[in-house]
Amino acid sequence: MVRDVVVLGATIAGLTAARRLAAEGFAVMVLDPNPEATSAAIGHGVGAVAHASTCANMAGAYGEEAAAEHVRRNLAGLEEIRKVLATAGITPGETRLNDHSLGVALVRELDRVRRIMAGAGAEVEIIDGPSGPGLGSSVLLLDPHEYATALHAQAHQAGARITHDVTVTHIRRLDGVTEITIRRNLAWVRDVEVVSAHAVVDTLGVSPWGALAGAGRAQYVPTLRLEAPSEEVRLHAGPPVWMRRPVAEGTLLLGPKCAPAQLVPAAAALATWAATEFGVEGDREGQLVIDPSDHGRPIVGASAIPGGFYTRGNGRGELMNGTASGCYLAALLLGVDVARNVGLPWASKLRAVATRTLFRRT
C-alpha cells in the first residue's frame, strides 16, 4: 500500500502535521525511533506570539516581512494548540509575558519590533518596569508531557498510524513514490520492513533533503527549579538567565543556549544568579536539549526533491516553533494558496475527500 504521507519523527511538528492531514482524510504514517511521547514532550512549555530578540534578529537578517511571517505562523500555531487542548479537555494556564530579551533597549527600538508584531496580528504593548522598557503580551503555560500525550492521542484518533521504536535504514526516491526501509529497535530483529508514500516529512534529519537543511549541532540549556513562587513569564537578555516561568512547584529558570562544554559553568552561573535574585537555592537542576536555529527562524519547507518536506532546527520539537512548523507543513502538503505546485497529488486529494465523506456518514 502506498500511503499519502510518511512523517519521520513523532515530534511536535510531526504529530501536528499528521493530525491535520489525517483529519482531512489522508493516509498518514508516523515513524519514530523513541518510545511514545519522548520526542514530543520536550521544551519549556510556554506558548507566545514571538520573542522580541527573535523578531529583531530576523528583521535584521531577512527583512521585516520575514519577521512578520514568523509571527503569523506562531499565531496559527497558538490557535492549533488551543484546539488540541480544548479537544483533550485541558485548561491551560494563562499569564503575562514581560519580554526584556533585547536587554537595555530604547523605546524606539522596541516600538519597531512592536509594529512588526502588531502588523502581523499580535496583541503586544510596550511596558515599563524597574529594569527598563520591554514588550508585554499574553502567553499560554502548558505541561510539555501532558500536551505531547494529548497531541499523540488526537493524531491517532484522526487516523494517523504511529509506530515507535523503529529506525530508518534506507530511503529511496522512485517515480512519484518514496520507499522507506525501517527496522524495529529490538536486538533479535534482523528483518526489515518497507513503507511507501507519495510524500515524506523529515523532522529528524535522516533523509537527504532533511540532512541538507541541518542547522548545526544541538545546544543545551541549564535549568533550575526554585520553591519561590512567580506569577508571570519573564525573558532576559542573558546570560546567566534567559527565561523564568511559573510552575506548580514554584519557578523554573532557564539559562542561555550553550555548547556541551559550557553547560557546567552556565549551570553554576544560573545557580549563583538565583541565590542573589531570590535568596534561595534551587532544589532541582537539569538541562534541556535545544535545536539551534537560523537567526531565530525555524527551518521548514519543501525540498527540491519531489515529495520531500522537512523541518529542522528548533522548528521540529519546541512547543511554539514545532506547532507553527507542523501547521505550515500541513498547508504545504494540502497545496494551500501558493503551495499548489508542491502539494500532494490529485489522486491523494480525491481519495482523502472520499474517505472524509465516508467517515462523516458513518
TrEMBL record:
Top-level division of the source organism's lineage: Bacteria
Database matches in Gene3D superfamilies: FAD/NAD(P)-binding domain
Domain FAD dependent oxidoreductase stretches: 4-332
Descriptive protein name: FAD-binding oxidoreductase
Organism, scientific name: Arachnia propionica
